[in-house]
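Please review this one:
***
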Amino acid sequence: MRRAAFFLAVLSTPALALPPGGVNPNDAEHLWWECHVQPAMRLGCCREADGHVLGDNDWRTIEKPNGARAYQVHVEAKWYDVPAQAVIHDLRHCGPEPNPAHRAMAKVWYAPSLADNEIVDIQIYCFIAGTLY
């Protein structure tokens, strides 16, 4: 009975997503990625999605028909709209990214939907536009 309860507890525990590959879970950069929360839901960005650093050609600003500014990210050869509620505007809480090479680069936290091991859609949880530091 105890063994069954243990396995049930392990299976029902939510898995946490990760910062970008190569980030040591014990250093300041990992803690920086873990610090961010989705503005709308106030949930940790890494709770449901993996973090990714975006190159200059992998994100863009667009203007909506109503004149509002919005963002798109390029993932696996497709452009995706960033939901307004996912955009992080206030970076004071976590401070500047510890990795100087990535400070001016955009960041996105997303979870892919896969079919036959290919990304068919993504759910964007958080986004930081480049050059905000």
About this structure: The chain has one domain: 17-128. Residues 17 and 48 are 6 Å apart (CA to CA). The radius of gyration is 17 Å. The chain has two helices and six strands.
